[in-house]
Amino acid sequence: MYDELINQLAAELTQRNYLVARSLMTVECKGLLMATSKKMVHIGPVKFKNHYLFVDWDNELFGRLDMLLTAQKNFSAMVNKDYKVPHGWRMTLPNLALVALTTNGFSNEAIECTLSRYFSPILGGEAAQIMLFDLRQNWMIAHSPPYYKQYGRIPLESAVSEISDLFSVIVPGGTIFRKKPA
């Protein structure tokens, strides 16, 4: 169903120096595509490595917010296995973005969760968020820009910027929302 889109995303991400794995199926995670930056990203004093997982909202998560949140939790656990330093002591953060794809629309709860929630352990050491691609409506929704200094703001915004750019390439003329669409 998403083969052409996944092929385009894989090509774009490979060109941007990402390791790309299609049809990810592990005990922890199931996804259409996973991409990990080959190099660490440095923005000011912050160092992080991007990890993106694209999932099927309609057929794998069955349009359910609880399954989306479980997928995010499992994605985090899978990525964190490769980081040997405990969360609170990390100098390099894993920066996770779980991107759900749909052609049938998202629930209001999923949209609200995406706009208002980012995922950061109590001890820090990770930044994570959910993004949504509605391929029928040709729009993307990402975490709202922070109005205050929040933990992980720099990597979170970096991921939104990069994935928004990818979305613009893959869906020319698409709309990117950082607040609830009208």
Molecular shape: globular
Percent helix: 25-40%
Assess the beta-strand content as a share of residues.
25-35%
Low-pLDDT parts are none
Radius of gyration: 15 Å
Helix and strand string, N-terminal first? HEEEEHEHEEHE
Average pLDDT number: 88
Report the strand count. Answer: 8
- Helices, by number, come to 4
User: Structural class, judged by helices and strands?
Assistant: alpha/beta
Span between N and C termini?
Answer: 27 Å
Could you describe the largest sheet, including whether it forms a barrel? 8 strands, mixed
Question: What do you see in this structure?
Answer:
The chain has 182 residues and is an alpha/beta fold. It is built from 4 helices and 8 strands. Strands 1, 2, 3, 4, 5, 6, 7 and 8 form an 8-stranded mixed sheet that branches. The protein is globular, with a radius of gyration of 15 Å.
Task: Output the keywords.
182 residues, 31% helix, globular, 30% strand, alpha/beta
What's the structural blueprint in terms of helices and strands?
Elements: H1 3-15, E1 18-25, E2 30-37, E3 41-43, E4 46-56, H2 65-80, E5 92-102, H3 108-116, E6 127-134, E7 139-141, H4 153-170, E8 175-177
Parallel strand pairs: 4-5, 5-6, 7-8
Antiparallel strand pairs: 1-2, 2-4, 3-4, 6-7
